[in-house]
UniProtKB/TrEMBL annotation:
This is 4-hydroxy-tetrahydrodipicolinate reductase. Belongs to the DapB family. One of its GO terms (cellular component) is cytosol. One of its GO terms (biological process) is diaminopimelate biosynthetic process. It is an enzyme of class 1 (oxidoreductase). HAMAP family: DapB. Its EC number is 1.17.1.8.
């Protein structure tokens, strides 16, 4: 182990986000990759995953054992909603700080993990989106809603994404809802000739989910006003765009107690 470095275990290390996270941790001088977890991880894949030899990194399918044996400080999780919840429970129980990019949890679950983190005296982070530009998009949208309350969201992701709408869209809706009263949008007598055409409804705001090959993560927030529209859009062209936020999250969770929901809470 290298003294004073933050020891990081990456869960879902063979996935697309996991591989980018492994590279980001290896390339940051303040972080040390000490473990990689994946349900299909085999030692023969080590060099392909890291880009070089293992250099003491522990590879395993056993999360609890790895967290203990590596004396991990932080667990980064990019798995699935079904797997992620158990991983967070294990990490907090062992005093390891969770940094989670997987979405699909309820407000009640987030509140429970927040209390558990406080009880253990550790920090934690769940971020629907780790791209700094996406965080700015959400902030700008929240500000715009004060003046243009009629709004719809179109979010576009790759066709392997399991949840809809995306966690980013939900977080954006929640932030906008802080600035506007719930209201009906569109004509009061409108009818859908094809079910779902008007999208999901969140306090009168409509959200539309697109799932197609070729996309990574994209969202536009469209505001309508008298004689004008305003579109705020963010595009993640590749998964590398999320890594500065992931690295920042790994460092920031060492500094506070409790679980934070949303990377925007860690920005100045």
């Amino acid at each position: 182990m290298t003294a004073n470095k933050i020891r990081v275990v990456v869960v879902g290390a063979k996935g697309r986000m996991g591989r980018e996270t492994v590279k980001a941790v290896l390339n940051d001088p303040e972080l040390e990759l000490v473990g990689c977890i994946d349900r299909t991880l085999q030692d023969v894949a080590v060099s392909a995953l890291l880009g070089h030899e293992a250099n003491g990194v522990k590879f395993s399918t056993d999360l609890s054992k790895t967290l203990l044996e590596t004396n991990a400080d932080v667990m980064v999780d990019f798995t699935t909603p079904a797997t992620m919840k158990g991983n967070i429970d294990k990490a907090i129980e062992l005093g390891v700080r969770p940094v989670v990019g997987t979405t699909g949890m309820t407000p009640e679950e987030i509140a429970n993990w927040n209390q558990l983190c406080k009880d253990r005296g550790i920090g934690g982070l769940i971020a629907p989106n780790f791209a700094i530009g996406a965080i700015l998009m959400m902030r700008f949208a929240q500000q715009a809603a004060r003046y243009l309350p009629h709004v719809e969201i179109i979010e576009m992701h790759h066709d392997q994404k399991l949840d809809a709408p995306s966690g980013t869209a939900i977080k954006t809706l929640e932030l906008i809802a802080l600035e506007r009263e719930a209201m009906q949008q569109g004509h009061p007598d409108e009818q859908e000739t094809i079910a779902g055409s008007r999208g999901g409804d969140y306090e009168g705001m409509r959200v539309h989910s697109v799932r197609l090959p070729g996309y990574v993560a994209h969202q536009q927030v469209i505001f309508g006003g008298l004689g004008q529209t305003l579109t705020i859009r963010h595009d993640s062209i590749n998964r590398e765009s999320f890594m500065p936020g992931v690295v920042m999250g790994c460092k920031q969770v060492m500094k506070y107690e409790g679980l934070v929901y949303g990377l925007e809470n860690l920005l100045d």
